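My main concern about presentation is that the manuscript never shows what a single data entry looks like. An entry of this sort, consisting of the sequence and the corresponding backbone structure tokens, reads as follows:
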Amino acid sequence: MKRIAHAAHWGVFDVVVDNGAIVAIEPFAGDPAPPQMIAAVRDWLDPAVRIRQPMVRKGWLEGERRLGSGSARGHEAFVAVDWEEATRLVAGEIDRVRSERGNDAIFGGSYGWGGSGRFHHAQSQVRRLLNLTGGYTGHVDTYSVGAGAVIARHVLGDDAAYYGRATGLDTVARHSEILLVFGSLAPRTAQVESGGIARHTLEENLRRIRDAGVRVVLVSPRRDDIPDWVGAEWWPIAPGTDTALLLALAGEIVAAGHHDADFLSRCCTGGDTFCGYLAGGGDGVPKTATWASAITGLGADDIRALAADIARKRTFITMSWSLQRAQHGEQPWWAAIALAAVAGQIGLPGGGVTFGVASTGGVGAPQSLVRPPSLPQGTKPNRSFIPVARIADMLLKPGEPFTYDGHAYVYPDVRMLYWAGGNPFHHHQDLARLERAWARPETIVVQDLVWSATARRADIVLPVCSSLERNDIAGSRRSDHILAMHQAVAPMFGSRSDYDMVRHVASHLGLEAAFSEGRDEMDWIRHLYEVTRADAHERNVCELPDFETFWQAGRVAVPTRGNVVHLETFRQQPEAHPLNTESGKILLTSATLAAAGYADCPPHAAWLPKAETLASSARERHPFHLITPQPDGRLHSQLDFGHVSQGHKTAGRETLMLNAGDAARLGLVDGDTALVANDRGRCLAGVRVSDDVRPGVAVLPTGAWYAPFEGGGEPVDIAGNPNVLTQDIPSSAFSQGCSAHTCLVSITRYDGNAPKPQFVAAAE
């Protein structure tokens, strides 16, 4: 029996192996709050769901490779081939498409949290290969932070405020008097971190905040978006109306003459225009507490009192990433920046605003001073790209124009998708529309270890092994450790590592030497560590141990920077420390957006009604606002088949949480099955009744494996995937982010006989 150091998105652990089999998973002793998901990692080795050998769709193999010929994807049998044939076919398609259509016609690199290892990082491996072939169409931004990233970079000049390099909860505990939580500070999202995380510190910091007597106000449709022991006030806001509340808080401060005119003059551009809008300029509607109360469902007196407190007390605002995943998703983030600026809180200890605290485990925690290891992708020879959430638009609208970040572009005519490390039939919106778009390309290649919905809709499927079956190295800018990921067991069936399979494809293209640089797996891991080690030495950050010492120990702590005050030096000397914005200052009004004239993203933060909310006419047919948070028992769709995820299901399907009063009116009780529907699709979910959710709101976590069932008429997803219901529309013409949280549904009792979802390798 031996212990093997390893890591995953959920943390650090030791794998206990006996006679080649995993007998236990033991979390890192130095982690103050190891998450439950660590226990699920051994489920990656479940043979029932694994892809056992390279597979090719029968019709494609027989020559069906014309544009729009993919309607059989997901319905047709696969044919087994060996690795030599599979990689030859992939290389041949890359060569054919780039020769016939150019490299813009290949969409590559995928998207998603394919693995915490930085060497076998699927996206990096594929992009490295495709850059050597002449380039590809890629994506910018993420589904997590699409609209917010674009507006934050535009208004503040960089990604620090939303990427874990701004004020953290340690500073809040020391200096803040009020903590405004818009969205969530929940352990369910803080348990994960891209690149792994050794110490989960959210709950430690929340206890410090509670013990310091900080007033915590949770603004969310869910009371359980923060642990109950924090003692937060719950403001059960109507979904999609946070912008109205933020604007009213700012409006009340300005109307009372309590705004920081000096900060607005020295550090901001367009403050007068924005304050004029708050007073009713432009639309004739003053942004008052009474106005916001009618929109948000919150008390006007409570809003006025909070505004007065913000003006005189040190206040920190944290905005979840989820808030900007909506139509006009730029506005709540921009309004939060504007409120913090109006109150003069930005750049003060314990004041200001940060985005995404606890959206992952490293945001809001002390910041690593060491640059993490990462596989170099090389230089991308071509410029073709799309905003990440516009994949279906790209496939359905080749040659049509789109805008992004104030510039105009054209969608490429993509004929081949090389997808690795992601599952768009989990994270994309309006899956029926994605199905139609998915049929258009001539060839789709998917690298995966299990038969996900995306793998089942491929032409060529390449079975990759899990991280437990290979060596790797982990780390991120939001983690205080670099982590060794030792191989625990042999690769299952005929699976290969991402590196080995992509290297094999490269060899068929005559690019093996350039791709591998003569290094095998351990050579690369050693090289990536040594690059990080040399950089830390050259910048005089720290002296990391040599590779052998690190590899044997399994992990090494790296120095971090805590008690950060974001934009402190800028506040003190804005002329000497300008921001990377159009004016060098915080943009409360944008000349770029004024010139662009986008109706859905005006030149300052503004209230814009959405297509589907509790206040819209669409509620007459679909009375519930659906929100789709991250699940407790998995990361996105990863390990949905695992025992931890399955333990959170209800009636064998994803759990739908409803307010007790709503459930009673619908005749639903705990354990019932509900049909959730709108004009885009239908799904089944198991009911859980709770007082922790606002009336009129339905909560259905994202990530259930898409499983459409067509027996008995109109298709219905039997697993409870909410993206059969969500809208595939851009947040705005400025960011083109996703709008998952702009969604109304109807809910009825289901007494039919649709089967429960099954996780089996049926495609073989």
Notes: The longest strand covers residues 682-690. The chain is about 30% helix and 20% strand. The radius of gyration is 25 Å. The chain has three domains: 2-141+389-477+481-557, 147-365+581-586, 617-749.
